[in-house]
## 1
Amino acid sequence: MPATIGLVGGHPRVACDSHEPAMCLAIPGRIESVHEDRGLRMGRVNFGGVVKEVCLAYVPTAGIGDYAVVHVGFAIAQIDEEEARRTLATFEEIEQLDQEEPQR
Amino acid sequence: MKHLDAYRDADTCRRLAAEIRALTTRPWSIMEVCGGQTHALIRGGLEELLPESIRMIHGPGCPVCVTPIEVIDQAIAVAERPEVILCSFGDMLRVPGSQESLLAAKGRGAEVRVVYSPLDAVRMAEAEPTREVVFLAIGFETTAPANAMAVRVAKQRGLANFSMLVSQVLVPPAIDALMQDPATRVDAFLAAGHVASITGTEAYPELSRRHGVPIVVTGFEPVDLLAGIRRTVELLEQGQAICDNAYSRVVAEAGNLAAQEVLREVFEPCDRQWRGMGVIPQSGWQLTEAFADHDAQRRFPHDAPPASEAAVCRSGEVLRGLLKPTDCAAFGRECTPETPCGATMVSSEGACAAYYHAGR
């Protein structure tokens, strides 16, 4: 298990453990299947083991295996894998700069 | 979990915080507009990682908190009708109206049910054709597409017994209103990524220019927040009042076009009252004429007398970033999540509840 920042404040909690669902919460999940319900694009989305029925009407090009951000039962955005890679790469650059710093 | 763990990594957070410290030469006040971001900042202890000269100000982006008292009173009045099942997101139930909360009304026998998704309310209308199902449709741009789809599906399926009590609010007019208030002391904004994932970032460059403030769109995980703050500080230090996107894996510049199309069909802009902030012009959405038959406002008219906040409650100042929750005399004394005086102590996104749960 990677260290998570929840531990920094001494409250190791995950975002979805609230007993009352936060209505603004949106979390990423993996699309496992896609089907239609009377014209409405629906699918099964896996959130780290918990699978839920989600409306996929707003991510018309997302398919099985794609990740989407889900809010109140609706996928609101498909995660752009290329942009995610780019963002994570910039964090690694910071790390390298950090390590070079003392030698300057 | 993919797309989650990497953005909660403690080492990345510390590195970003070190960068922020290195970049900062002056005191800056940054408002995170969204209540979800407020909670993530406080729960993750991120403010403690920041240099003291960076002050995070918590903004009004908590949909439950800004829903007007009159709307809650109206929802209670509607719920009390014997034919009605009132459906709501869970965190609305405890919010105090002028006399009581939806939860108290439920305790007296009103039919109030919690739903996770607005589509659950549509299914309820299908399953119980003899009842009137009324969905309390609150939220910002993030939730609007879900609410819009619910009423659209209900109309398509001919569900005459489904209606919505709409109290939708919009972020850019709120930023504008805050910056027009001379009391506001904000140098820059973190804009909520999930709002922007729907609307795109189009509205922000103009706001940045007009008010001379950088606006950085970012996400809700600790790493996203710190990366957003880092970029904000960079722009502040360079004197650049522009909008930038630090959440590009989720937010496209144009936003979600499929959602925008449905929003245009279902909603139209209107003036909206914000709890604690007053009326903000063109800051909300209401149902268009095409959905009048599903508009609970029209179907169950209710003349809610103007109501005011409990005298002791200073949530209006908290929502505008003028007061820290802990500076309110009622905080943690007569006002707790179990016995809230105002909405900011109720919602899982309210600043007062965030401070209370973090043991501040």
Note: Residues 1-21 of chain A have pLDDT under 50 and may be disordered.
## 2
Amino acid sequence: MWASINELKERIHAGSSEEIVAQYLDRIGKSKLNAFIHTVGESALSRAKEIDKNDIEGPLAGIPVAIKDNISTKGIQTTCASNILKGYIPPYDAHVIERLKEAGAVIIGKTNMDEFAMGTSTETSFYGATKNPWDLDRVPGGSSGGSAAAVAGGEAPLALGSDTGGSVRCPASFCGVVGLKPTYGVISRYGLIAYANSLEQIGPFATSVRDVVTLFDVIAGYDPRDSTSVDKEVNYSSALMNDVRGLNIGVPDEYFGEGTDEKVEKAVWDAIHTLEDLGATWKKVAMPHTKYALSAYYIIAMSEASSNLARFDGMRYGLRTEDQDWHTTFSQVRAAGFGDEVKRRILLGTYALSAGYHDKYYLKALKVRTLIKQDFERAFKDVDVLITPTMPYPAFRLGEKIDDPMSLYLADVDTVPINLAGVPSISIPCGFSDGLPIGMQIIGKHFDEATVLRTAYTFEENTDFHNKRPEGS
Amino acid sequence: MITSKDLEHIGWLARLELSEKDKEEYAPKLNPVLDYFSELDEVDTEGVEPAYHVLQLSNVFREDEVNTKCSLDQEEALSNAPNKQDGFFKAPRMM
């Protein structure tokens, strides 16, 4: 069930898209992962039939794709894994969904996630936690845990997630798949239900860099409906070169800090040496403000969230409790509809923006963001890419951290600086620790996805980690 | 330090009703996070501009015309409304 796009295309050519889609739906139906909140078997099969019948062409013609449940899909329930949006049916498609449909892709379902993308483990979902295909007692990472688990578990060849502070790369790392967070502005956020707008990007998942690039090429590009969308010509398939000769890699010690698992550290260094053997060079770079990234990130993300999530009031869509007066109704709708972690983030964000605290928290965090951005600008004067662990450790156990928000936040230490700076970054498999996948993070300059992808592709072509599959899932 | 009383005020600002149990449970989970955030006090940000955004984007304008590509008709706009009447969203009473 872990077929590449090219293999699937051959099988569709020899047989039909309908058969392929039916096989994936069957596998999802028997799954223990809880990777999907909602599947759309009927519409997926009828779309597949239509593609078969009319010989519809496109880069993803007849290929099944799973979509994170915070991306609006016309006519398909979209909940952000929250009770407050239970039953919400978007009347329009996100830009990326329009693009997928034009490319011939078949949407098979909406994947599980942390509620409103706020989490690192996919345990805060109103629909129950997703499990890691490599060990059902462990988390898949988050917040796009359903998408990563679906791809790792052979329940979808491709999936979309969103990444606000690591939500694509973390689950890619924990589930042993490839996940890309593009430069801010490369993919339109039109139709992505916002958590923290200045930080987030939609990103693709697949089992290989090649397939990630195919999906990325389909969904990237200018869209005037997102005012932060950047008007640039994109074609990333030319980046798929098995060649890193002359590449300069930067290794920031700050990302191998206290709390980093020894086996993770060793796997990432082994990977750097593999690239060195293939003709790259590496040097240490200093990124002195990294240690402040976590605080700056959480203050900014929570502040933006407290404002963004004001729209959920039970008036135009979503849950509505019994009417009282205006303010009481809204307060009760939100109390009944949001889960604990979402409430905590709204409260902290409101606090950080409130009179008397705005300068101490929010404004200070924005200034620290400038310093973190400058760390990247300085580093990239000397090197082409940075390589770090994606996560400090492999997947942890379900329930292990969920009652202690601070310990969960600390897990994001290596992913959040990238969103603060808005640079592109990919997580690819680079090793195992006691049977659990380890992810390596490759970070590039603004809009230099090509070099990031070339580095990732070269590593993949010369190693075998991405071909390992979880047994028995 | 956020107290239970502070939580009530923030909850009101955020239009989020908090039960007594919420207030009891949230404060011990939020205070360690705020303590952690206070590490930013040690960073020298004298003369540093805030980064509201990562790209050098200035205001993005469009023609002031109805864009039918991203507008909904009345029926679509009301399709998810939990409470509606005569083609309008029905709001709770003000007082």
Note: Chain B touches chain A through 55 residues (CB under 8 Å).
